[in-house]
Design a protein that fits this description.
This protein is α+β, with helices and mostly antiparallel strands. It is built from 19 helices and nine strands. A hairpin with a 2-residue loop joins strand 6 and strand 7. The N terminus is likely disordered.
Length: 504
């Protein structure tokens, strides 16, 4: 029997330790146009030049130069070089990180705040930042906003690590179009190893995959309650529960467990690592259940016929609707040239999962978190709950400030309640999809609070101060994020379980 040359064991360290803060992305920072603009203005005034003087020297209109100084336009490299030469500084000095003065630093910070989601959520008018704005006013405004942000961060201190790590991960997924060729390649290697050709991935084939990787499968009734599977790397065993919940495809649970091994994962160093590994194994499992070549061929035929439908993907590969929708987002941009977005929304209106690379504007809090935010009531993901026909997919056009989107959605029940699963595309891509002929249309002005957050004036006038609801409290909202590399998993319980079963 051939075994793949993957890592044989994980790092021998305890995971129930204080988790370090997630590391920042190593990606190179983008040009800070606000800081650059303030530096150009400072150097221009220091040199005794007017806007007209400098614009004449660099050959651009004063209005364009004003946009640069106000941080509203990013200059091209040629113009940067001309500005540096005219101001008698180097490019590096022009792009320096340190503000040229205390006042400039305050102006930059206030401008950043005013362009961020926190200030936008306050629905306050923006302060015009100019040389006439007193220094003490600048100090006061920046100080107030810093304290407000500190207070808000204090309120979300327990889930903040998860939120920020998830935000960084989502940005990376968006940048890559949610396509990971390295995981596709590993999945193909595994399928080739068991001689897979075509058709839905049966449990028999999956058992062959586990055997080919050197693992035996054991279904038990005493799996630790905080786990979906446990892998014994010492004895090459994978333990699965005998009582599979309907929430999870048992094939996916096993393939995800194998994914950690195939992809060479080590014990997560922080919550960011944990989330990244979860995304990787979910992707790997989906790439096995819906192999890239077969799925792309299926989608290309559907596109040519202008009949793309998530339910067809589901039926062709015998997977859940959610898995089919996720897999579509993996392949749509890379292989079909279609940008898209995905939502999983609870019947309460709260977004549980979201992805986009098509410009749709999801609601977010001041940290940039989307999960946990209420979805607009006009969106397809909310409207589908009121549709009597639960057998067919519901499609709708929604006009938004960022453009018109077409979405298709279904609802599914789980132990946590009813959820909608929706896939959407910009209007220019709808011609490839079944359901484009729908006449259902809505308008969403979110994030404007007058769209669906605030009650109509007539209702507010009648009932404001005369209503006192009893809120349905969700206990998980009050709980701190569980510590450790595998959050919420009891290390002693897992080790005791493995010790007990290794003797059998």
């Amino acid at each position: 029997m051939h075994f793949f040359a993957y890592s044989q064991e994980m790092s021998p360290v305890s995971w129930n330790r204080e988790v370090a803060s997630p590391s920042l992305s190593a990606a190179s920072p983008e040009l800070d146009v606000i800081s650059l603009g303030r530096r150009v203005r400072h150097l221009r005034k220091q040199a005794g030049l007017t806007l007209d003087d400098l614009s004449a020297a660099v050959g651009t209109a004063p209005s364009q130069l004003s946009l640069i100084e106000n941080g509203k336009r990013e200059p091209k490299l040629g113009l940067l070089q001309q500005l540096a030469a005219s101001l008698n500084v180097t490019i590096d000095q022009l792009l320096g990180a340190e503000p040229p003065s205390r006042r400039a630093a305050l102006e930059i910070e206030l401008e950043r705040y005013q362009r961020g989601p926190l200030y936008e959520s306050l629905n306050l008018p923006k302060i015009r930042i100019s040389s006439r704005l007193p220094l003490d006013v600048l100090e006061s405004q920046v100080g107030l906003l810093q304290e407000l942000e500190r207070k808000l961060n204090e309120q979300v201190a327990t889930p903040e690590e998860a939120r920020r790590a998830n935000g960084e991960l989502r940005a990376m997924m968006r940048e890559r179009g949610n396509y990971f060729p390295e995981y596709e390649a590993e999945a193909q290697k595994v399928l080739k190893g068991v001689g897979y050709t075509t058709g839905p991935l049966s449990q028999h084939v999956i058992a062959d995959i586990a055997e080919n990787l050197g693992f035996t499968l054991h279904h038990v009734g005493d799996l630790p309650h905080s786990t979906r599977s446990v892998t014994d790397l010492k004895n090459r065993r994978i333990y699965l529960t005998q009582n599979q919940r309907q929430d999870h495809d048992p094939r996916s649970v096993l393939l995800q467990a194998l994914g950690h091994y195939v992809l060479g994962h080590e014990t997560p160093r922080n919550y960011g690592d944990f989330l990244a590994q979860r995304v990787a194994t979910n992707y790997f499992a989906a790439a096995l259940l819906l192999p890239e070549q077969a799925t792309v061929e299926f989608l290309q035929k559907a596109k040519a016929a202008k009949e793309i439908a998530v339910e067809d993907i589901r039926d062709a590969f015998a997977v859940s609707y959610e898995t089919a929708a996720h897999r579509f987002t993996n392949l749509a941009t890379k292989h079909l040239g279609i940008t898209t977005h995905f939502q999983k929304t609870h019947q309460s209106g709260i977004i549980y999962k979201a992805y986009e690379n098509d410009g749709v504007t999801f609601p977010q809090d001041h940290t940039g978190a989307i999960e946990g935010q209420p979805s607009c009531k006009a969106w397809t993901s909310r409207a589908v709950f009121d549709v009597p026909d639960k057998f067919s997919a519901y499609s709708q056009y929604t006009d938004t400030p960022s453009g018109t989107y077409w979405c298709t959605a279904r609802t599914e029940r789980s132990a946590a309640g009813e959820f909608s699963l929706s896939i959407g595309v910009p209007y220019q891509h709808v011609k490839w999809f079944r359901g484009r002929e729908t006449t259902a249309r809505a308008t969403s002005n979110c994030p404007d609070p007058n769209c669906c957050k605030r009650p109509p004036a007539s209702l507010a006038n009648e009932w404001a101060g005369n209503a006192w609801p009893s809120a349905r409290a969700h206990s998980h909202l009050l709980a701190a994020m569980p510590p450790g590399a595998f959050p919420g998993v009891d290390e002693t319980e897992v080790y005791s379980f493995l010790a007990a079963h290794s003797e059998r």
